[in-house]
């Protein structure tokens, strides 16, 4: 059925025939003529596989034959010009180590494709190579307009006008290849993908990273773990329980190349690593290339873009954040995002200053005063110092504020503990939810991993998420399991272990998509983004963290705080309907293209009319795309747009 015929039902009243006199011969004649006309029309349009009313610009497939690998690349031209059948898309990676000879084979394929399409979509040109690592909201030149006090210039500063926005496609660097699959990617990456040697020089002694021919090697070293991240994590495990499932989500502040987060993954601990875009070029980009969750971010004047009570553990290994300054505001922000009973780990200055003060080129008095100041801020938060062993110190946040006398935030600020999108950071303690007894866990206790993935989150059971009950949560969990099974039917590569590692959900809701993937045991992680435009759903991000998943707030009218080519797979559920009256659809699609790697996949769910518009733009940004039916069949107005981003680099232009 076509777009219109799939969405339209014809109603013929049964009594209409009864009111007319019965004349058999004319009725039979009319029936035969109609049948003959229909059969002739079907034959002229390519047989019974065709959809007679189907628009030539859109391929709607009721059953996509994507169950086998396609040796030849599918272009938009192939799909748009064929109205007799829906050609399967090619979601395979063609530019891994074994396919170097084809680096430029697809460079010009989509240029001819768009010209052949009957829908005249706008063709977006490629940006210059200087934009290959462009981050819209962390642009170095724009940042210079802002004050350096408290590192404000390193915060998000997005283009303020349309003239400042790039209206072109961010290119991959010459020689770009498909990243190594996990877990190999933890230790090795292609140099051509992140062509930076700065850290190999600046951090050579600390064993962060080294160049090995056309590859980058990550030995797992760090400033404060010269014996490797595994040994460092083992030292932490002697102080707090890392192996029993009670710690699942972690925050790494000033992450370097994220070796701490990379090696924690073997413990089923998911770390959100962040660092600013600064003189240590591309440290977050290295982390993402390794297949480790990370974002560009900084502790400055605004709250971190995470909800309250999100992380089971926070970590700083010589992150050089001045915890003792600004009335302790930075440590108070860590306290806000730390779960009741959560841990804060500090290594590096000033911990163990008696041993390292000469190497740190600071005086004993200065370091001693700094540690005393940090201890005082921690005490003001009612934290308990559990242990200081060697280079590591650990504090624990209380399970409630029942017996805490702290400098709490005002009632107005306290009523919005999850508010974190451009929200000013205040030097005050975010109060925990009230408890009936001192032994209770404020806000409710979470289950251990992996049970917490499917258990009802405390925010849901306590009616803190508007419109969500325990029953609707369970229904949502099952719904996304069914949808993920459908995705795996129409995209064969979805089930290939290692095909997708870095995954983005642009409208995560309750995290059902990510939970379904995690329950299936796929070796991937999902960044769950909750749009700030929908005030009814902003509280869902806290529930997502209570499930043991990670994510952030995001306004999709702005750029995301990440590097180009971050994600292997992007999932967008009703995003374009949500933003239909807020900003240009083209801008959202250009941002999706920026953060999707070459030969990556996008799955876009929306109303069929919206998807037709999206596809017309997608055809102009070098995407191969195809509309397929909803998992419940062709009569559902919501459809799915499957996208395969074509391969091309700056070298091709």
From TrEMBL:
<keyword id="KW-0808">Transferase</keyword>
<comment type="similarity">
    <text>Belongs to the methyltransferase superfamily.</text>
</comment>
<dbReference type="InterPro" id="IPR029063">
    <property type="entry name" value="SAM-dependent_MTases_sf"/>
</dbReference>
<dbReference type="GO" id="GO:0032259">
    <property type="term" value="P:methylation"/>
</dbReference>
<protein>
    <recommendedName>
        <fullName>Methyltransferase</fullName>
        <ecNumber>2.1.1.-</ecNumber>
    </recommendedName>
</protein>
<dbReference type="GO" id="GO:0008168">
    <property type="term" value="F:methyltransferase activity"/>
</dbReference>
<keyword id="KW-0472">Membrane</keyword>
<feature type="transmembrane region" description="Helical">
    <location>
        <begin position="21"/>
        <end position="43"/>
    </location>
</feature>
<dbReference type="GO" id="GO:0005789">
    <property type="term" value="C:endoplasmic reticulum membrane"/>
</dbReference>
<keyword id="KW-0812">Transmembrane</keyword>
<dbReference type="InterPro" id="IPR004159">
    <property type="entry name" value="Put_SAM_MeTrfase"/>
</dbReference>
<keyword id="KW-0325">Glycoprotein</keyword>
<dbReference type="Pfam" id="PF03141">
    <property type="entry name" value="Methyltransf_29"/>
</dbReference>
<keyword id="KW-0735">Signal-anchor</keyword>
<keyword id="KW-0489">Methyltransferase</keyword>
<keyword id="KW-1133">Transmembrane helix</keyword>
């Amino acid at each position: 059925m076509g777009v219109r015929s799939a969405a339209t039902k014809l109603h013929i009243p049964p009594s209409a025939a009864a009111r007319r006199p019965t004349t058999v011969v004319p009725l039979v004649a009319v029936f035969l003529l109609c049948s003959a006309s229909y059969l002739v029309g079907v034959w002229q349009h390519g047989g019974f596989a065709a959809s007679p009313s189907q628009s030539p610009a859109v391929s709607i497939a009721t059953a996509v034959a994507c169950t086998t690998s396609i040796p030849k690349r599918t272009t938009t031209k192939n799909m748009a010009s064929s109205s007799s059948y829906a050609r399967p898309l090619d979601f395979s990676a063609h530019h891994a180590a074994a396919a170097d000879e084809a680096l430029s084979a697809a460079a010009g394929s989509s240029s001819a494709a768009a010209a052949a399409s009957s829908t005249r979509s706008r063709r977006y040109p490629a940006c210059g190579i200087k934009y290959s690592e462009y981050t819209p909201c962390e642009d170095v030149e724009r940042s210079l307009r802002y004050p350096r006090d408290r590192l404000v210039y390193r915060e998000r500063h997005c283009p303020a006008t349309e003239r400042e926005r790039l209206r072109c496609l961010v290119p991959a660097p010459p020689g770009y290849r498909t990243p190594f699959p996990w877990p190999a990617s933890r230790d090795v990456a292609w140099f051509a993908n992140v062509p930076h040697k700065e850290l190999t020089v600046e951090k050579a002694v600390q064993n962060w990273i080294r160049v090995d021919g056309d590859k980058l090697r990550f030995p797992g070293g760090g400033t404060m773990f010269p014996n490797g991240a595994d040994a460092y994590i083992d030292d932490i495990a002697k102080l707090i329980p890392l192996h029993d499932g009670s710690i699942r989500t972690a925050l790494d502040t000033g992450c370097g190349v994220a070796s701490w987060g990379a090696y924690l993954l073997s413990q089923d601990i998911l770390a959100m690593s962040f660092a600013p875009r600064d003189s240590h070029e591309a440290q977050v980009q290295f982390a993402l290339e390794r297949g480790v969750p990370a974002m560009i971010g900084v502790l400055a004047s605004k709250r971190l873009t995470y909800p309250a009570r999100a992380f089971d553990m926070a970590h700083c290994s010589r992150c050089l954040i001045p915890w003792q300054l600004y009335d302790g505001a930075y440590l108070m922000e860590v306290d806000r995002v730390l779960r009741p009973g959560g841990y804060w780990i500090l290594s590096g200055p000033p911990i163990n200053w008696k041993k390292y003060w000469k190497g740190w080129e600071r005086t004993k008095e200065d370091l001693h005063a700094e540690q005393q100041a940090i201890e005082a801020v921690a005490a003001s938060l009612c934290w308990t110092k559990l242990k200081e062993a060697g280079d590591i110190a650990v504090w624990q946040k209380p399970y409630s504020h029942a017996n805490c006398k702290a400098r709490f935030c005002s009632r107005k600020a306290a009523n919005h503990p999850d508010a974190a999108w451009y929200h000013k950071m205040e030097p005050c303690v975010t109060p925990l939810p009230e408890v009936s007894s001192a032994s209770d866990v404020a806000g409710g206790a979470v289950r251990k991993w992996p049970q917490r993935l499917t258990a009802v989150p405390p925010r849901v059971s306590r009616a803190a998420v508007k419109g969500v009950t325990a029953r609707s949560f369970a229904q949502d969990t099952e719904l996304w399991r069914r949808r993920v099974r459908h995705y795996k039917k129409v995209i064969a590569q979805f089930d290939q272990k290692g095909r997708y590692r870095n995954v983005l959900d642009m409208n995560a809701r309750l995290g059902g998509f990510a939970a379904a993937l995690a329950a299936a045991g796929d070796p991937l992680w999902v960044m769950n983004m909750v749009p700030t435009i929908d005030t009814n759903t902003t509280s869902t991000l806290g529930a997502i963290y209570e499930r043991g998943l990670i994510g952030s707030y995001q306004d999709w009218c702005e750029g995301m705080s990440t590097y180009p080519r971050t994600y292997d797979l992007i999932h967008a559920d009703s995003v374009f309907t949500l933003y239909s009256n807020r900003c240009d659809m083209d801008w959202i699609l250009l941002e999706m293209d920026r953060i999707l790697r070459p030969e990556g996949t996008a799955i876009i769910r929306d109303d069929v009319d919206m998807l037709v518009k999206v596809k017309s733009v997608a055809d102009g940004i070098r995407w191969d795309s195809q509309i397929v039916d909803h998992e419940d069949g062709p009569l559902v107005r919501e459809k799915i747009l499957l996208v395969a981003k074509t391969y091309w680099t700056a070298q091709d232009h």
